Amino acid sequence: MSKITFDSIHTQTKQKQLTEMMHQSARVCHEINNPNPELTHCSICQSTNISFHVEKFGFQLDKCIDCGQIFCNPMPSHEQLNSYYNGPMKTFENQFFADSFENRIPIFSHRIKIIHNYVKQGLLLDIGSAIGIFIEALQRSNTALSIHCCEPSGDACTRLKQRFPKIHLYNKWLQELSFKEKYHAITLWDTIEHIEDIDAFTQKIFSLLKPGGYWFFSTPNTNSFEWQIAGKDHVQLLPPGHINLFNPNSIDILMQRHGFEVVEMQTPNGTLDVSYIDKLTQSSNKYDKQLGGFLRTNLQDKNFKQKFAQLLSTTTTAGNVFVIARKPNNE
Ligand SMILES: [Zn+2]
Fold first, then answer.
1. How far is the CA of 50 from the centre of ligand 1 (A)?
2. CATH of 6-326, one of 3.40.50.150, 3.90.105.10, 3.30.1330.10, 3.30.559.30
3. SS (H, E, C) 204-253
4. pLDDT in tens, 162-189
5. What is the rounded average pLDDT of the residues 104-126?
6. How close is the Cα of 268 to the center of ligand 1, in Å?
7. How many angstroms separate the alpha carbon of residue 69 from the centre of ligand 1?
């Protein structure tokens, strides 16, 4: 897994244009009315102990002092989100996924091995399939699972149909769908951080699973090395795209509240953290204090760097968390 680095996953074109594209899309969003009230409590743990965290692209992000959740406040309106997800930002992102397609396959190959340990056959629903990198990795693994996809972006669906003409595809938001089937497994890759009404969404996933079915998902982990060092400059503070940023504690609370059992949480890609922080510390010395002299010196050493990345993975402190949750048999 050592080839997975920040630069291999985020193409140069994306890194150059992302901020400009975000400002452009956010400007359009701010011209649209947002009737949503400011939240007075955390939607994960219900605590009223929340405080201002940072403002990005004209959107305010607050942080729950109790569970650590970082969330947009107020949440953007449906009209704003529709404009964002049907605007140039989404096409830009899909193109960036297409450009980094092969480099992203190993991330999914690792997850697929784990999925197959839990679910070998039956129906799998992939939510937010984007242009289908996971689907491609799944097919290359000769899976026995039947795959259904749910993807709201029309641009992404066109690309999905081209690549997988026989795939069972729903071009809608999950909440708009009324499924007949119940699934053995549901997958959701780096999507939950985009969801505004997290309770309704989690409930819907629970209702779509068969008893004993599994929910596999990944999301940024703010309780991680890269988030602690990058702080309020972190590249994934991206409202109105990222509006709910989790950590293992807030994930646990959400899962328990909705009746899921958390089977396992992993952060397999510590190499991503190390390469991202490498890049940040080379660009500016403002991160030196958080990083500390010891780490700043030793991270120059290739061997230390490699072992440190492994340490982040084994202690669940790398920047992306992979969650395996299960709907109990008696539900
Ligand atoms: Zn909270």
1. 8
2. 3.40.50.150
3. HHHHHEEEEEEEEEEEEECCCHHHHHHHHHCCCCCCCCCCEEECHHHHHH
4. 999 989 999 988 988 887 889 999 999 9
5. 95
6. 25
7. 6
